[in-house]
Amino acid sequence: MTTTASTSVLPAAAAVQQRVADLAATHIAPWQEGYLKDRSNAVAALARLRRGAGREAGETPDLWSLIDTDPLHTPVAGRGPLSEQELVRAENALHAALTLWAFHQQSRGASMHHRHTRERPGGLGAAVRRLMPADGIDEPVRKRLVRAGTAADLAALTQRLRDIVALLRRKEIPLDYALLAGQLYVWQWPDGPAAVRRQWGRSFHEQRRTRPAPDETTAPSSDEDTTPDTDKDAS
Questions:
Q1: Where are the domains of the chain?
Q2: How many CB atoms lie within 10 A of CB 205?
Q3: Which residues contact 41 (CB under 8 A, 6 or more apart)?
């Protein structure tokens, strides 16, 4: 963890969490469209992003000109500018989410970032559940999610998420990387890991309830998180 404070600040983090999520979506949208249309600038951007995977934002000066963090410096409505600690955490969360997405999108021919909706859930827990058979639990896969949830800090969490993303990429299962970016921001605050783990757990179980059984053609209504896509060539 980046901090040792014991007081929960999650309510105060909510506005910044949404800003980080929105900024991640703003970055990914044109890159994803460009990559799928084989535009050279987008292909090059993803290649640069992948090189930053598993490293903190401050360690990757090559990405400073690529990932625009200026919107994070705009004062939050009703409370002024972000503190240095908030900025560092927001930048690290954004960096981690974008580099994971770039790894996920590589060589895939369809969008690996999908925004979460109730009808088309896109959170991490549900995405992991989609890796499993409809009528059972794949324990090794489930344990990867549990292991990610118990990571000691953001660096360890990002590495463990990368292992999960590799599985999602192989099966062409997309993820809401804007949602994930916001969760990675919250993760870095006191009580944050527990809050994010709860979201992932709910997402996992809700996807299980709404997923069709092998002989079903329709599914009951859902509450939260994931749905898939397809493949493309490497950059």
A1: 10-210
A2: 16
A3: 34
Chain Cα centroid distance, residue 228? 15
Task: Mention the CATH class of domain 10-210.
Answer: mainly alpha
One digit per residue, the tens of pLDDT, for the chain of length 235 reads 344 343 455 666 888 999 999 999 999 999 999 999 999 999 999 999 998 877 778 788 888 889 999 999 888 777 788 899 999 999 999 999 999 999 999 999 899 998 876 666 679 999 999 999 888 888 999 999 999 999 999 999 999 999 999 999 999 999 999 999 999 999 999 889 999 999 999 888 876 655 554 433 333 333 333 333 333 443 3
Angle between helices 154-171 and 177-187 (to 10 degrees): 160
